[in-house]
Design goal:
8-stranded antiparallel β-sheet; 8-stranded parallel barrel; 10 helices
Length: about 450
């Protein structure tokens, strides 16, 4: 099947749109069109007049979609369920929380079908306080992990996850640590420092114990990264892990222990910005480490997204993941400037081999709380703002929804090319159920 799709809009608004082509015999028929506009006149709204196919014309941009050229399969789209997000949700009225969870994670009606989540192992910088699962008084250690306990996650993150799993039992979950317990670190502090080499074994057991404890709670962790932003010592909590250290830790301790445990959780390298792809490729070049590794994860606060393709080309058998990016509304700007972030965090990662997209983060309050002190993010807007029981949907919500609602897990990216390469950012999928989905972002100020 080949489709040439012509877009001509009289509006000057930036727009992002997605449509599904029904698997009917005649592909000349109309496609359903779902539109989100900058002026908020359409918010992931199905248009009553379907878009129609037409023959190519010189004055129009042609998007050529070819489902014979297939690329990576899709695991899902979602957000980080931080401890702070879970805390705000647990403080909501139970029915209001249930309604929000159904809207975010369901697939019927106005639900947006989020199918992937990221959680922190211990606290992230978007918790209201710092903790790990084995904190000890200064000067004391716990090499047998006798004091290991999931702590606050038992009353906030895990209950929310169970409500989500009741809506979508197949949702994939990625877990990332922000820091090892301080007694395992060179500076004995939650912020900065490095993991002591002599504690590689106990930290590997700590991570496996976390995975087993979550499994015992009925929660399967599909993927795990070794360290969130391993080159960033500025968050509270945080921990520096060089590529040589991560390589040694996986090869000598965590990889063998995870395999021995029988758990099916996959290891993802790096989990940091696109400006240092060598972090991943250097580790993958070690065959003794690579045999334990599923792939590499990237953020986009630095570098360019095509770094993911460079890592793919170095080892095409390994997977790529887009594990974090914050998308926020401009202060005091009522316009929903959605086209640029759709291009940046949906089209970009997907056309550079990512199996998923995870945005940072699901929820915050109107003051961007909660977060830790001395290194917590005070400007991290949630995809939704939760003010007691009132929910406001923000730019990140609609950015992700433009993909998550239509591109379900198991979909496969297919070829899509614009006749004018800079005119319309786009990505196409052969979706589950036989549909073809095309996501398009017009980032220009003129009709395309």
């Amino acid at each position: 099947m080949r489709i040439s799709v012509l877009f001509k809009k009289s509006s000057l608004l930036s727009l992002s749109l997605a449509f599904a082509v029904l698997p009917v015999a005649a592909q000349k028929g109309p496609a359903s069109l779902w539109l989100t506009t900058q002026d908020r006149s359409a918010l992931l709204a199905q248009q009553s007049a379907p878009i129609a196919f037409a023959k190519s014309a010189d004055q129009l941009t042609t998007l050529d979609v070819d489902d014979k050229q297939k690329f990576q399969s899709v695991d899902g789209f979602g957000f980080a369920l931080t401890g702070g997000s879970a805390q705000l949700m647990m403080r909501m009225d139970a029915q209001k929380r249930a309604d929000l969870i159904k809207e975010v994670f369901g697939t019927e009606g106005n639900a947006i079908g989020v199918s992937y989540l990221r959680v922190s192992i211990g606290s992230s910088d978007l918790n209201d306080h710092v903790f790990t699962y084995d904190d000890m008084p200064t000067g004391e250690t716990d090499p047998t992990l006798a004091h290991f306990d999931l702590g606050p996650d038992k009353t906030e993150v895990i209950p929310v996850l169970k409500e989500i799993l009741a809506i979508n039992p197949k949702i994939k979950i990625l877990a990332s640590p922000w820091s090892a317990p301080s007694w395992m670190k060179t500076n004995e502090n939650p912020k900065g420092g490095s993991l002591k080499p002599e504690d590689y074994d106990v930290y590997a057991r700590y991570l496996v114990k976390y995975l087993q404890s979550m499994k015992d709670a009925g929660i399967h962790i599909d993927t795990i990264t070794i360290q969130n932003e391993p080159l960033n010592p500025k968050n509270t909590p945080s921990m520096v892990v060089t590529s040589k250290e991560e390589n040694a830790f996986i090869k000598q301790a965590f990889g063998p222990q995870l395999r021995k445990s029988g758990l099916k959780t996959k290891i993802i390298l790096y989990d940091h910005n696109c400006d240092v792809p060598e972090y991943a490729t250097d580790i993958l070049a070690d065959p003794e480490t690579a045999k334990y590794v599923d792939g590499s994860g990237f953020h986009l606060y630095g570098g360019t997204i095509n770094a993911m393709t460079k890592v793919h080309d170095a080892d095409p058998k390994k997977s790529l993941y887009f594990t974090e990016q914050m998308i926020v509304d401009r202060p005091r700007d009522t316009a929903l400037r959605i086209a640029a972030p759709v291009k940046r965090v949906i089209v970009g990662p997907m056309t550079n081999w990512s199996r998923n997209v995870l945005l940072w983060n699901l929820a915050a309050d109107p003051q961007f709380n909660p977060h830790t002190n001395n290194g917590g993010c005070g400007s991290c807007q949630g995809a939704v703002t939760i003010d007691h029981d009132t929910v406001t949907r923000n730019l990140a919500f609609y950015t992700l929804a433009q993909a998550s609602k239509f591109v379900r897990p198991g979909s496969v990216r297919i070829q899509s090319v614009a006749s004018l390469p800079d005119a319309l950012a786009n990505v196409a999928f052969k979706a589950t159920g036989g549909k073809t989905v095309l996501i398009v972002a017009n980032t220009s100020a003129t009709p395309q």
